[in-house]
Amino acid sequence: MTTSRQPLAEMPLNEIDVSHPALYQSNEILDYFARLREEAPVHYCERSAYGPYWSVTRFDDIVSVDTQQDIYSSQKGGIQIVDLEGELKRINFINMDPPDHGWRRKVVSPAVAPTNLALLETTIRTRVCEILDSLPKGEPFDWVDRVSIELTTQMLATLFDFPFEERRKLTYWSEVATTSVAKGGLVESEAHRIEILQSCLAEFAALLQTRANMPPQPDMISMMAHSDMANMDAQEFVSTLILLIVGGNDTTRNSISGGLLALNDFPDEWAKLRSDHSLVASLVPEIIRWQTPLTSMRRTTTQATELGGQEIPKGAKVMMWYLSGNRDEDAISNANQFIIDRENPRRHLSFGFGIHRCMGNRLAEMQLRILWEEILNRGLDIKVLGAPERTYSNSVRGFTSMPVKIGS
């Protein structure tokens, strides 16, 4: 397994393993991806903690994989680098190919359709204002906990109509589902992960039964209860829930933190934003590109194929590293610069492409837009006080804490 102890420049290509969570926690991973894009854009790693896999690191190659589900299957091996079997095999629509994928996605997608989002905007703005107005001035606090987690968890509770006072359970379950196994970490084994997620299943199964006995409502659990998804077995039910929780939590939560960090790291861009509040419209997609909160997706080849001059055999594990594609200078000008007034800021990979494009992308963008509108309306001067603590995960590029202070 590759670690950061050996200098990257001295490391043979065949020893590079970009799956190690420590590279993401230390934020060294971008240098690794830069080397692969330059020297081996379609790269084979023979030995890793997750078995052999191929890495796809350039923008155009990633789009090619993401839009050819007949060659690159989500269903054959799932969408994670880890091979999930038995109780851990997550059966849900993101892990499915057509035709199974389509009708399941359509059941819950109305919750984040434009008409419903328009109804949610007032609620989001009210909650953003309450959160911002409760923050201390002139003293340090944790932005991740007080703002990023709180806002996204409130919205998840609303989308599920989950008991509001217990909303932090949703954050916990999301973290359990996505963190990498580590001794002394949030989960110490896959068996430990299963044990924790059983409590998630139990609580939502009770909610599903309650909603089934009530008239249909515009929340996701009610939509599932009044569709064919009500007949899912326990494994598919909990898997679908985790998908929706992670999708609703990680993208927005970590983009909220990543955006603030980026503006602190690029003060000229923040000055530009303060002088022209209309730039929020292009700031939001730039934050999502820059952060790339979900680093990757996996596919499995259904046949032998060629990509980037490499012959990939049938049954191979292929990783699309969205984080790398979003820093591809051949596809995005000045990709390693945070630029809030890009000419085409929506040209990024963070939401994926094709049939699996992120269902909640507009909700994520709306939450970020409203947050920055209200920060600017209040003239808040928010300074990051030190290096944030990053998530130990190769799938979620996130933060566990980030100390900040608002100028008094």
How is the secondary structure organized here?
Blueprint: H1 21-25, H2 29-39, E1 42-45, E2 53-56, H3 59-66, E3 72-73, H4 100-108, H5 114-133, E4 141-142, H6 143-160, H7 168-178, H8 190-212, H9 220-225, H10 234-265, H11 267-275, H12 280-291, E5 296-301, E6 305-307, E7 310-312, E8 317-321, H13 322-325, H14 361-377, E9 382-384, E10 389-390, E11 399-401, E12 403-406
Parallel strand pairs: 2-8
Antiparallel strand pairs: 1-2, 3-5, 4-12, 5-8, 6-7, 9-12, 10-11
Q: What is the H/E order?
A: HHEEHEHHEHHHHHHHEEEEHHEEEE
CATH topology heading? Cytochrome p450
Name of the CATH superfamily: Cytochrome P450
- Biggest sheet: strand arrangement: 1-2-8-5-3
Gross CATH architecture = Orthogonal Bundle
Q: Strand pairing plus helix content: what structural class?
A: alpha+beta
Termini separation comes to 48 Å
Percent of residues in β-strands: 5-15%
- Work out the helicity level: 40-55%
Give the integer mean of the pLDDT values: 87
**Sequence stretches where pLDDT stays below 50 over 5 or more residues:** none
Question: What's the overall geometry?
Answer: globular
Major pleated sheet: 5 strands, mixed
By DSSP, the count of extended strands is 12
In the CATH scheme, the class would be Mainly Alpha
User: Over the alpha carbons, how many angstroms does the gyration radius reach?
Assistant: 21 Å
Tell me the count of domains: 1
Give the count of helical stretches. Answer: 14
Describe this structure in words.
This protein has 408 residues and is α+β, with helices and mostly antiparallel strands. It has one domain (8-406): Cytochrome P450 (Cytochrome p450), CATH 1.10.630. It contains 14 helices and twelve strands. It has helices spanning 21-25, 29-39, 59-66, 100-108, 114-133, 143-160, 168-178, 190-212, 220-225, 234-265, 267-275, 280-291, 322-325, 361-377, and strands spanning 42-45, 53-56, 72-73, 141-142, 296-301, 305-307, 310-312, 317-321, 382-384, 389-390, 399-401, 403-406. The strands form four sheets. It has a five-stranded mixed sheet. Strands 4-12-9 form a three-stranded antiparallel sheet. A hairpin with a 2-residue loop joins strand 6 (305-307) and strand 7 (310-312). The longest helix is centred in the middle third of the chain and has 32 residues, at 234-265. The model has no long low-confidence stretch (mean pLDDT 87).
